Amino acid sequence: MKEIAIIGVEMDLGQSRRGVDMGPNALRYAGLDDRLRQLGYTVKDYGNITTPLRDTLQTERKLAFLPSVTSVCEEIYQLGCKVIATGQLPVFLGGDHSIAIGSIGGVTPTEPSGVLWIDAHGDFNTPATSPSGNLHGMSLAALLGHGASELVNLGRPGPKLTADQVVLIGARDLNEQERQLLIENKITIYTMREIDARGIATVTSEALDRLNHLPRLHISLDMDALDPMEASGVGIPVPGGLTYREAHLLMEIIADCAYVGSVDIVEINPILDQRNHTSELAVELITSLLRKKRLPKACVAGAPQSEPPGALVQDFPGNRLNSRVFPAKD
Fold first, then answer.
1. Which residues bind Mn(2+) (predicted)?
2. Which of 12, 119, 246, 280 is catalytic?
3. Of 180, 201, 213, 281, which is least surrounded by CB within 10 A?
4. Could you tell me the pLDDT band of residue 293, with boundaries at 50, 70 and 90?
């Protein structure tokens, strides 16, 4: 089995609510290393990437802490490149979701990867659309080439992903301009409305089928994808999310049908948690994701399909995403 590389990023600069910088150590305290070893993996923990303390920094509303976030993500990028080159499977522990700008860039220097972005939010704002300037809400947009040049060109020039490499699962909290950008960029997105109507198994199989042309997957798991009743200790909780069983089944189907090459776990806020429950749940989900596969990747191609096979945002005018536009994470 591959060696797993644990990379912690104690960064909360990408959002305004304090506490997610404690996520990496909360996950370690919840037993992540031991659980992975029980699965048969060798685990190498690289510790935490040094992140500036926000109280020592100046910011502006348009792009909060941009130089510091860029610097930290550059370190993530370089370490990700190193780990991938050695054949290890990196698991990045956030921290807020802006770390994905570095992690996904870092694991794709020579070979493309599909990305399952599991999140209550789209993270597809730009400086022109963001109400707050918080960079965790711009991370996916930057990876596809939109937004601040410092983020778009981080690590290497230009976008790190194309639209056919990305599927969003669990979205239920977008602002209107962000929704329009997702439509214009033809991003495939499975909202909670569609998961409610069609079931997590069907949605997951279709999502994987859309990414089956790629050699491996990166799973970017924002714990706010789960319902706050299941995971209260998150940066931006939004009602109506994945249940405990839906989240586990999602991970189990991915494990059965896809080659996972890298993982993010982000937006855990121990300050808002109850006895580290959210971190413990995250460890359970990663254990489900990285367990030994039972079926080959080809199982995805034979998954039952319905029409249409997958969903662009505009395909579902009555869904939860379109009928409720929140003051969103941006």
1. 97, 119, 121, 123, 222, 224
2. 119
3. 213
4. low
* Coarse DSSP helix, strand, coil percentages of the chain, rounded to the nearest 5 percent: 40, 15, 45
Task: Identify whether 97 is a catalytic site residue.
Answer: yes
Between CA 209 and CA 250 the distance in angstroms is 14
Pairing of strands 89-94, 3-9: parallel
Catalytic residue among 12, 121, 246, 264: 121
Catalytic member of 21, 136, 173, 273: 136
Q: Please confirm, yes or no, whether 222 is among the known catalytic residues.
A: yes
Residue 328 forms part of a structural domain: no
Indicate which residue of 222, 256, 264, 273 is catalytic.
222
- Catalytic residue check, 164: no
The 3-state DSSP class for residue 50 equals: coil
Over residues 311-323, the pLDDT tens digits come to 444 443 333 343 2
Task: Examine residue 60 and state whether it is found in any structural domain, yes or no.
Answer: yes
Known active-site residue 277: no
Of 172, 299, 286, nearest to 236 (Cα)? 172
CATH number of the domain enclosing 67: 3.40.800.10
* Residue in 97, 146, 218, 248 annotated catalytic: 97
Active site residue 119: yes
| pTM recorded for the entire structure | 0.89
Residue ranges of the annotated binding site for Mn(2+) are 97, 119, 121, 123, 222, 224
Cβ atoms of residues 169 and 192 within 8 Å: no
Does a structural domain hold residue 329?
Answer: no
* Residue 250: domain span: 3-323
- Token output for 225: 């994808």
Domain count, the chain: 1
In DSSP terms, 94 is beta-bridged to 9
Q: Is residue 173 included in any domain, yes or no?
A: yes
248: annotated active-site residue: no
CA–CA distance, 28 with 239 (Å, rounded to integer)? 27
Active site residue 34: no
